[in-house]
Amino acid sequence: MTSAERSPLTRKLSAFVALSEDELAVLERLHQRRRSFTAGRDMVHQGQSARVAYILSAGWVCSYKLQPDGTRQIVDFQVPGDFLGLRSVLLRTSDHSFEPIVDIEAAEVLTSDLLEAFTQTPRLATAILWAASRDEAMVVEHLVGIGRRDAGARMAHFLLELASRLALVGMGSKEGYDCPLTQYHLADTLGLSAVHVNRVLRQLREEGLVTFRDAHVTFHDYGGLVDLAGFDPAYLDQTGPLLK
Amino acid sequence: MTSAERSPLTRKLSAFVALSEDELAVLERLHQRRRSFTAGRDMVHQGQSARVAYILSAGWVCSYKLQPDGTRQIVDFQVPGDFLGLRSVLLRTSDHSFEPIVDIEAAEVLTSDLLEAFTQTPRLATAILWAASRDEAMVVEHLVGIGRRDAGARMAHFLLELASRLALVGMGSKEGYDCPLTQYHLADTLGLSAVHVNRVLRQLREEGLVTFRDAHVTFHDYGGLVDLAGFDPAYLDQTGPLLK
């Protein structure tokens, strides 16, 4: 088994398409330039002209936009198997920043590598487009969450989405998952204050639904949380033998 | 000049790449199945398994998600030259609904047509990916707007973004543009009530910045509105001789 076969990205794409030996080889070559980044130090700055993307193989990253007044909106989190900056490869500037939440391992992918891989194996291109479409569907869900869900449903939806995403790469289940996010991350994601985040998490715990403590999320009543959030995982499009 | 050379999509993609005769011909073939849709009647329903996308050639469409409680979050609008449902082509279900705001003209594109076009002309594929990346960047901006901008800046940003997008297809300028949206559309987009939308628009008018009346947006002080919104059009990536 090659390293690409074992990579989280390979596991993820396999939920969409069964990759051939040739396609796996092309995917492996995309993993060649391995790099490490330190927690808390930005990898790509908003406004930077960065024609490079990364495939995250270990650790968590957040992507965010700073507002002129200094407030921060977290757009999304990346977990192993996710692309970072796939969008920026084609736009002429990066429209947001990436910050590793813990020390991470990632493979650097140049625009030219990606376009070459697309030309060699259209099916792999389609699989990567699938992953990009899924990323966009998540951003849409976050938009709906902030626009239309109350704080409890918003938090529940967010914790359930992470569980599904992590399950796809073998790092989560209906029991729970390890999660390095702080209350400040949650606040900047959900458009709440850190105090409000605290209160919402206490309420969900007291209702016997979920506990987030000591960097671990534990589901006590997965079905109850799904009902509270109105969580329908169809937008994640992972109809394999996972959480659905 | 062929019809595809004249199409709004061709104008838009030309901001990214100069298309060859061959590529224009492939693009033209994507425009073959022309269809009309009536205002107010959904084209694609949330949850529908729709392996078809559309290229909008005339009229406006909104894409939205309904929440279990019946409230609606508008995710984005599509104007001539935009794809509808490009994401749904790869995901197994449509993650939102599309409603024509006025009577529209669109070309139907099957998944198979699109993948065939991608294989024939990787450069055209890249241009379409650019358009998809730009669409996602807009959704990110809307997320930031709802999460972090006050009502005035949110409205100003939205009206400015539409001006840039319409300018790209010759339908808007720094003077203004025709706009068929109602206050209910604005409310469901910006996470405000219709009453609040009214108040914000009156305020922007009284400050001498912009008037939205009788289906037309008129900029009185474009620069002032840009300042109020903190609008940086870099995320739209249209460095041609347009609004920037």
Radius of gyration of chain A: 18 Å
Count the strands of chain A?
10
The CATH first-level class of the largest domain in chain A comes to Mainly Beta
Find the structural class of chain A using helix and strand composition.
alpha+beta
* Biggest beta-sheet profile of chain A: 4 strands, antiparallel
Oligomer: homodimer
What does the average pLDDT of chain A come to? 87
Number of domains of chain A: 2
The proportion of strand residues of chain A reads: 15-25%
**Uncertain ranges of chain A:** 1-5, 240-244
Instruction: State the fourth-level CATH superfamily of the largest domain in chain A.
Output: Jelly Rolls
**Share of helix among residues of chain A?**
40-55%
Distance between the termini of chain A: 28 Å
In DSSP terms (H or I, runs of 4 or more residues), the helix count of chain A works out at: 9
Q: What letter string, H or E per element, gives the SSE order of chain A?
A: HHHEEEEEEEHHHEHHEEH
Name of the CATH architecture of the largest domain in chain A: Sandwich
What form of chain A results from the Cα inertia axes?
globular
Tell me the CATH topology of the largest domain in chain A.
Answer: Jelly Rolls
- The main sheet of chain A orders its strands as 1-7-2-5
Quick one: which chains have the greatest interface?
A-B, 45 and 45 residues
Domain HTH crp-type (chains A, B): 149-223
Domain Cyclic nucleotide-binding (chains A, B): 15-90
Organism (chains A, B): Paracoccus chinensis
GO molecular function (chains A, B): DNA binding; kinase activity
